[in-house]
Amino acid sequence: MLVDFESETTDLHPTATIEPRRSQRTRQIPQRLHDYDIFSESTVNSEGDLVHLALFSEIEPVSFEEAMDDPKWIEAMKDELRSIEKNKTWELVSLPLQKKSIDVKWVYKVKEKPKGEVAKYKARLVAKGFLQKAGIDYGDVFAPVARIETVRLVVALASLKGWPMYQLDVKSAFLNGEIEEEVYVAQPPGFKIKGQEEKVYKLRKDLYGLKQAPRAWNKRIDSFLHQMKFIKCTYEHGVYVKSENNSDLLIACLYVDDLLVTGSNQGMVVDFKRSMMEEFEMTDLGHLSYFLGIEFKKTEKGIVMHQCKYATDILKKFNLYDCNPCATPAEIGLLLKKDGPE
Question: Which top-rank group of organisms is this from (predicted)?
Fold first, then answer.
């Protein structure tokens, strides 16, 4: 049987416009999002200072040969070697019989400020730790860090109490860790000592890339913080608390070589910074603004934590920076009833 498709489908497109049924129920924010600020046109963006981030498109070298063509990276490598020598990390020796040295390589990174400006050109000398053998070149490797949930909790507490928050960065932190094993590394590419090219470095302290380096550094700073009368949190080993006069409190969150510090007594904070800088080579980054890839902005309502720069970096990486914006997870113009039922 033949079917006239034209006649059969004429009623599929009625001329009368039918309005879709819309729910009259008052929309509520989901319970899981109650502790977040949901932005359609966000507080941060409305102030105009982070709408269009002036991100630098600095290209990081992928090889030593490429880095040698740029004076900025040559100076960065020299600065790294100066830090290693200053920390007395190694000594030049002949490689003992039946011992193997571990190769090293250069890793390059452009460190940025919260708004994307170049803060520093960093060259890191890294040991090829994947060549190490367990039980010979290293033992335990675990090192605790503060969880992001804990960082949020400390920031919320400081905001509630009105405490100022500061951030510190330990320069070449892993070079401070005392090494327990006998480890030898090759001389770095481009900086071999003339006439002694066959010699290697015996490590006194850890080097980045070694499997035991994070643990050794953590043991070093943990010991120092205990000397300063800090108590390590029982359930969060990346958080240290110090109390004085049964009222003054100082809290330090440790994430590898980054420190977030806050407390009720400004004098305790100043003393802590001074003691840390006397013991380690550190950078005082001032008031908390950028920590673990998260930006912090103080407002009248409290502290806003956001990742505008991170999101923008992802969009740029995948060539989607000029895509049409979409409010997520809340839609534009959504009106929520305060303290109402779901």
Answer: Eukaryota
- Other beta carbons within 10 angstroms of residue 105's beta carbon come to 15
pLDDT at 21: 60
Residue 205 maps to a domain: yes
The pTM score is 0.67
Is-contact 258 291, C-beta < 8 A?
A: yes
Domain assignment of residue 231, yes or no: yes
Biggest distance spanned by C-alpha atoms of the chain: 97
Residue 302 lies in a domain: no
pLDDT digits (tens, 9 = 90+) for 63-120: 899 999 999 999 999 999 998 998 889 999 999 988 889 999 999 998 877 666 788 8
For the chain, how many structural domains are there in total?
1
Residue-level pLDDT at 55? 38
In angstroms, rounded to a whole number, what is the distance separating the alpha carbons of residues 311 and 294?
11
Q: Do the domain assignments include residue 14?
A: no
Measured CA to CA, the distance from residue 271 to residue 273 in angstroms comes to 5
* DSSP code per residue over 258-285: EEEEEES-HHHHHHHHHHHHHHS-EEEE
**Contact 124/208 with Cβ under 8 angstroms?**
yes
Strands 282-287 and 165-170: antiparallel
Range of the domain at 258: 57-292
Contact 127, 185 (CB under 8 A): yes
